[in-house]
């Protein structure tokens, strides 16, 4: 999700923003946006450098505030009546509790990865897919690192294989825990989501 609504419009003609504009930028970060964007402020404004610097400073301060809130494991975006939101909240909380080195999950369905990203987990989200369009779309999402994998009937096998490759490429240490999230379609037509913590010894065998 990109927030681009002339966030610092007053800086088209002024070197500093209004208090309301700073609040709007911070609230966009708190709401879990992936990116904030300037338009007129940098295209025709008198203070383009100051605009970018202001946006960067406010965004970093807001994210630092979110990290301090998360330490109490009470940070929540709401939406608890939505199953996907509840799962994404659990994923973020578990990754913090176990100090996961990474969260590895299928990129499809795309919506689940987006919801996990909005929770701002401490660990990077490795999103696995064989679809080029999904990989391209995911590159803008906060904390998400897309990874191409060969299509397979077993989501668990795909994710374990990816973890092994990441260790081989030294993108994961192989010494810490990794949280795997996979969604499977049952014969009844219902889908189920599995969360699994993979220990280092298991990952070495996957490699």
- Report the radius of gyration as a whole number of Å: 19 Å
Per DSSP E runs of 2 or more residues, the count of β-strands stands at: 7
Summed up, the helix count is 8
Mean pLDDT: 78
Q: Which structural class is indicated by helix and strand composition?
A: alpha/beta
Strand content: 15-25%
Within CATH, the superfamily of the largest domain carries the name Pyruvate kinase, C-terminal domain
- What's the CATH class of the largest domain, please? Alpha Beta
Poorly predicted segments: 200-207
Strand ordering within the main sheet: 5-4-3-6-7
What does it look like?
Helix 1 (19-30) crosses helix 3, helix 4 (83-97) crosses helix 5 (110-118) and helix 7 (155-168) crosses helix 8. Residues 200-207 have low confidence and may be disordered. The protein has two domains: 2-70, no CATH class; 83-206, Pyruvate kinase, C-terminal domain (Pyruvate Kinase, Chain: A, domain 1), CATH 3.40.1380.20. The strands form two sheets. The chain has a five-stranded mixed β-sheet with strand order 5-4-3-6-7, with helices on both faces. It is built from eight helices and seven strands. The chain is α/β, with parallel strands linked by helices and 207 residues long. It is elongated.
Comma- or semicolon-separated keywords:
single chain, 207 residues, alpha/beta, Pyruvate Kinase, Chain: A, domain 1, 2 domains, two-stranded parallel sheet, 8 helices, 44% helix, 17% strand, elongated
Topology:
Elements: E1 2-3, H1 19-30, E2 35-36, H2 40-43, H3 48-70, H4 83-97, E3 102-106, H5 110-118, E4 125-129, H6 132-138, E5 144-148, H7 155-168, E6 178-185, E7 191-198, H8 200-206
